[in-house]
Amino acid sequence: MDFSELKRLYDQPLFDLISQSRETHLRHWRGEQVQRCSLLSIKTGGCSEDCAYCAQSAHYSTGVEREDLMPVDEIMRAAQRARAQGATRFCMGAAWRGVRDGTPKFEQVLETIREVSQLGMEVCVTLGQIGMREARKLKEAGVTAYNHNIDTSPEFYSEIVTTHTFRDRLNTIAAVQESGISVCCGGIVGLGETPHDRLRMIEVLCNLVPAPESVPINCLMAMPGTPLADQPPIDIFDLVRLVAVTRLAMPKARVRLAAGRTRLSREGQALCFFAGANSIFYGEKLLTAQNPATDADVALLRAIGLSIEPNDRPVAVPT
Asked: Are 23 and 274 in contact (CB under 8 A)?
């Protein structure tokens, strides 16, 4: 879709828009199931990038302490717990600019992936900037998806990050795609961007070839000490509109409600599910941000008639 098509959808009356996105969702996905993903920070703090939203950046005083890369056995225990609690996707994130083949930290990450991949879950990593060599080795080790969000529109990006460019993000995504790893790529809303920026972000995403199989939509968690600490929450109807447009633009993608759900009401989350979201991150912490408790998520899904997706890696309905 191009921008004009996305804007036409977005500007419809809300009920017309979500009725269309709901129909599209049910046409491409089986049942009323929501995938639960678990996210673990395997290396926290001290990142050299200056992303204005991030408490892990070394540029800001946020109280987040720098930690070394977690040992493999500790990560494995977390992955085993996640699987036992119903996760079908295990995501590992590291706060650094990127990794390079041949370095000790990359070898340790590869060893970890080999172990986690034996548990039968999808294995997703987010390690910053990588090239073709790194992407191929990650795939060989067992990575099924690589997360590398574009965050916002190309035009607004330099207002949020100055230590790398929007093009740098696209270069990493291209390397991941060429290696055959699925792309998990979305953005963050509530950064101070406009609705135009949000739709430009979706335009970029849906015109990637292939389009991402997973599109996380994060609501800014305004972290003390960061430049965006005082940003207000996004309006819930703006978020629902974005979820609906994302579902229409990328019908076969997982649309993931990611960070920021603690700032959303139960009713707001329910609207997002109706509009086309079909995946959440669960657990009480996402990297450094708070997340709803697991039992609260189970209660919400049960209350609105949704169920947790089983551990059999369901796929979109063929068309």
From this structure: no
